[in-house]
Design goal:
The chain has helices at about 45-55, 70-80, 110-120, 135-140, 140-145, 155-160, 165-170, 190-200, 215-225, 230-240, 250, 255-265, 290-300, 305-315, 375-390; strands at about 1-5, 15, 40, 60-65, 90, 95-100, 105, 125-130, 150-155, 180, 205-210, 280, 320-330, 335-340, 355-360, 365-370. It has about 400 residues and is an alpha/beta fold. The structure holds NADP nicotinamide-adenine-dinucleotide phosphate (NAP).
Length: about 400
């Protein structure tokens, strides 16, 4: 259930669960690949480290890149080239090329078969990198991972979708295949691997909070302190290219909500479904179905209400309003929407970055992962880091 801006006061989602999710088959990124500063802020995996990992292994990776002509796909081929990793197969929406052969119509069964045969010949590790947004490609995952082909993907859909289908997919992963999707939250930032490693190493995850949309971080930053009206901030964000062509796709919070589902599931919560969540949208109800121009022109009617909401939060010194996701694991509640954060909250130093704060029984002051949460290069190198992990047992 989604609520519009007109309501403005709002909560939240409650998800009751009784048992935790098995994480055995889920993305697990080694801690040793990252550095942690004294502030607890972790840096993204570096290409230098990736190079080291490649040369230290004798087992070659046999990689198919699905979506190689796209924004992330193009960056992925460049990053692979930099570390001397040549793709075995290249696939786009209608055609594919295998092992330098001619372009032929896409056939995912024969792609899988060819990868398995090539990997067997080379004593290598077969991996399919999915850098599309296609559900049709995701429908192939269980067939691939059940045959021992690893999947490294930036494609969120299935991980935030129907829980039963998600669990079936996890159960279909046949060792040593891996299913890695680090870049589905925070692009290349080491979020899911960190969360999973904490959980697997006996931390009790208590809370995961995230500023997960650069666009919404920009808009909420622009309206802070009354610097700008909401409609002006959205107009600027659109002109700067920070939004989708229809800014409502960002302002409705659905992308943040999908990432919240992924974080909640990896935190061990069950029963989390996008369709059951109450998400506070920044799109006024009355402007949900009109044209983009009508939306842009009509938004100013809501400026005063939103400015008041911001000002109310800021009455408490240092407090700020952020559009964020909060996974309260202890209480099994997932919240997506504008949140008031007191001065000491890590979100107040996020700027336009994505920032994910993980609180555990040991990290009572949260462990923070912060950095660019979008962009072709950071997403592609995140996918490449997952590809490289596929050859580790
Ligand atoms: N950009 C970011 O900052 C970022 C961050 C995190 C995650 N992601 C995710 O990364 C993915 C890729 O994003 P993008 O911006 O690179 O997308 P994009 O530029 O639209 O590229 C999509 C690619 O997928 C291919 N494709 C579409 N349908 C296909 C199908 N059924 N079978 C095979 N290939 C298919 C397209 O091939 P054709 O050229 O033939 O159409 C194209 O190569 C998305 O899931 C996105 O959510 C992106």
């Amino acid at each position: 259930m989604r609520r519009g801006l007109a309501l403005f006061l709002g909560t939240v989602v409650s998800q009751r669960t009784s048992h935790s999710l098995s994480l055995n088959n889920i993305s697990r990124r080694s801690f040793t690949a990252f550095t942690t500063s004294s502030t607890g802020i972790m840096s993204a995996p570096s290409l230098k480290k990736a190079k080291t990992d490649t040369s230290s292994s004798t087992k070659p990776l046999v990689v198919a890149v699905v979506g190689y002509t796209g924004g992330v796909g193009t960056c992925l081929l460049t990053a692979m080239n930099k570390i001397g990793l040549e793709p075995y197969a290249l696939v786009r929406s209608k055609t594919m090329k295998i092992d330098g052969g001619a372009e032929v119509p896409v056939d995912f069964d024969s792609l899988g078969q060819s990868l398995l045969e090539a990997a067997e010949k080379q004593n290598g590790t077969p991996v399919i990198a999915d850098v599309t947004a296609s559900s049709h490609v995701q429908d192939q995952y269980s067939g691939w991972v059940s045959k021992g082909i690893s999947v490294a993907t930036a494609n969120k859909g299935i991980f935030a979708g129907d829980e039963a289908k998600y669990n079936e997919l996890l159960a279909s992963v046949a060792s040593p295949a891996k299913l890695l999707h680090e870049t589905t939250v925070g692009a290349g930032l080491p979020v899911l691997g960190t969360l999973t490693a904490l959980k697997n190493s006996s931390h009790e995850i208590q809370k995961v909070e995230g500023v997960l949309s650069g666009t919404l971080a920009y808009v909420l930053g622009a309206v802070a302190g009354g610097k700008m009206k909401l409609s002006e901030a959205v107009k600027n964000a659109k002109e700067l290219g920070y939004t989708e062509p229809d800014p409502r796709m960002d302002l409705n919070g659905m992308d943040v909500a999908r990432k919240a589902v992924i974080l909640a599931r990896l935190s061990g919560l069950t029963g989390i479904e996008l369709s059951k969540m109450e998400i506070e949208s920044l799109v006024p109800k009355a402007l949900e179905d009109c044209s983009v121009d009508e939306f842009m022109n009509g938004l100013s009617a809501y400026d005063d209400d939103f400015a008041k909401r911001v000002a109310d939060v800021e009455k408490t010194a240092g407090s700020r309003l952020h559009y964020a996701a909060k996974v309260d694991v202890e209480n099994k509640i997932v919240t997506v929407g504008p949140m008031a954060c007191e001065a000491s909250h890590p979100f107040n130093s996020a700027g336009p970055d994505n920032l994910i704060a993980i609180t555990t029984n040991f990290y009572t002051r949260p462990l923070v992962v912060q950095g660019a949460g979008a962009g072709g290069d950071v997403t592609a190198t995140g996918v490449l880091a997952d590809i490289l992990l596929c050859k580790q047992n």
